[in-house]
Amino acid sequence: MLHAILAIAGLALAFGLILGYSAQRFRVEGDPIADQIDSLLPQTQCGQCSYPGCRPYAEAIAAGEADINRCPPGGEPTVLALADLLGRDPKPLEAETREKAVAVIDEQTCIGCTLCIQACPVDAIVGAAKQMHTVIEEECTGCELCLEPCPVDCIFMVPLQQDIADWRWSQPEPSPIERPRRAGVDVTGKRQESA
Amino acid sequence: MQLHRFHGGLKLPDHKAESTAQPLLTMGVPKYLYVPLSQHIGAPTEPLVQPGDHVFKGQRISQAKDYICAHVHAPTSGRIKDIIDHPIPHPSCLSAPCIVIECDAHDQWGDSRMPAWPDWRERDARSLRERVRAAGIVGMGGAAFPTAAKLNPRAGKRIHTLVVNGAECEPYISCDDILMRSYPEAILEGARIVAHILGAERVLFAVEDNKPEALRALTEARRAEEADFIRLVSIPSIYPAGGERQLIQVLTGREVPSAGLPADLGIVCQNTGTLKAIRDAVLHGQPLISRIVTVTGPGIREPRNVEALIGTTFADLVAAAGGYAPGVDRLVMGGPMMGFAISDDTVPVIKGTNCLLATRPQDTTAPGPVMPCIRCGECTRVCPANLLPQQLYWFAKGKDFDSVQDYGLFDCIECGCCAHVCPSNIPLVQYYRFAKQEIWGREKERQKADLARERFEFRQLRQEREEREKTERLARKKAALAKKDTDQDTKTAIDGAIERARAKKSAQSNEEASPTDRERADG
Predict the structure, then answer these.
(1) Which domain holds residue B301?
(2) What pTM was computed for the model?
(3) In terms of domains, do A79 and A107 share one?
(4) Cβ separation of A167 and B92 shorter than 8 Å?
(5) Could you report the per-residue pLDDT of A139-188, keeping only the tens digit for each?
(6) Do B452 and A171 touch (CB under 8 A)?
(7) B337 and B420: one domain?
(8) Are A75 and A116 in the same domain?
């Protein structure tokens, strides 16, 4: 009896020490799950998920505080990728996906106040105080964060023109037979009525 | 020569006789040419001309900026009317930038012709490749991959065989057939030049057995002493024997590895049209400014092959072939298997245009309704790439893009055999194209997201640094101010001390100086 208790206690102590040591020795800085989630997000930094940027949203998902369907710029593929990563069920998007667009500054109206430059999360606006500002189109993520601070409302979102380089084949329509039946239409009931 | 065969494939009615009945017609110079800036796989080119400029025939009007890119030359002399967005041959039916040339009908070269090199055997591979690049030559079988890049295999890859692709397996297309019949010497000379560039020991010239005239012309043109060097091979007409990988398998029995290139087997494959263009560039200093196009189909009055300048609109091309038959409702660029429908006939001929097919409603049977896959396995039986089209279809449909790649999606050559035999009329190839482009598109978006993340993180870092610098600056200022204060204190303290000392001193001197006063006071 005593031997058994001593053996178990000894083992528990040994494993406890090993675990305690490895927790210190192999400590991971940061949150690897949040990193993985962050790498799936589109990095528009738009805040449409109600978090101040993609990284905070990723951390909130990792902590279980936020749902995976709150990223409109990422759309359905992002929801599916997150569901796959986290082993959760995919859900339909909460908000509607906006058309991809870039910000364009009306250079005639711009007064050079630099407020939009401070608001841009990816430094995609160039300009200086009392000088005209302009958006670097390739760097703009279309987050719309620059629209609000502009005191003269001279920033517009211009939908991206589809050009040949971006054009993609669409997925073919499913055949009529495979199309899912509309909910609320009871096919069998009608047949019984008519019979 | 022992021939091999590839998996699957189809025996299709060839419909080539319609367009080969007439001899090759060289078209005159049309009024306007629409020359697209991007006619090849790779980066678009950058125009070198402005509206209003005069250009000579063969003058470089748009410059390649990248290695996988090809220069564009003026097909004839004239005035640059404009650089505008114009419909180009592309499955999207979208427009892309084109240089519009108002032709002056003089067709003058000026001094834009490159020096002729009849002594090309004395030149090294590098300068010949540079000539091919300067002539803007791309693969003319349809894929339009820049040829100079293809003639420069990766270091360490020794090329022993040049395969010349004269198979032309798609129904209706006969431009290579007519080219081989009309210019057999030129093609063979091109093959000699390319073999010289690559250091290849032999040339395998494959022609499908449904083109006996072409084979005879080539045999007559070949010099007797080079029968061992250039071997003319008649191969069975099985679609898609003209696919690069399939042709190599037929000729050598070896498979090009997945994600590899023919160069991995020591082979480079070139189309006959490309060889003729290379020969013209080297022997005559001519850039690639024209090509042979098959104008055919039941919707054309006199189907034939036309040698047309790059940028000629399809409308001009059809006019040269006797015009439309009544009731044409569909124009296809390329063959019936791999071609795509185009929106209208304002679209110009580009370097990769091999065929224009016009059909009427009664010529095509509308595909029946799309039915569910019954897993009959016909598609697997005919797939020339030895894939499982059915599995690819399920994964592409379910957007399972990892599995679809595991099943070799990128080995699919989109030949259309699977869709052709599918009893359920499933548009299989469109599913594969969709999946491929979705995968590329997501990769592009991921790169964009990475860039945005990098910039965002850098901005945060910068803001933190600025914040830190600001607090440091404030702290320094505060310290400086505090120091000034203490300085002031010390100064006042010293001043006070001096003042006090002075007062004391004066008081003492007063005491010593006037004792009488005190005495007086005492008294």
Answers:
(1) 17-358
(2) 0.82
(3) no
(4) yes
(5) 898 888 899 999 999 999 998 877 787 788 888 887 766 655 555 445 44
(6) no
(7) no
(8) no
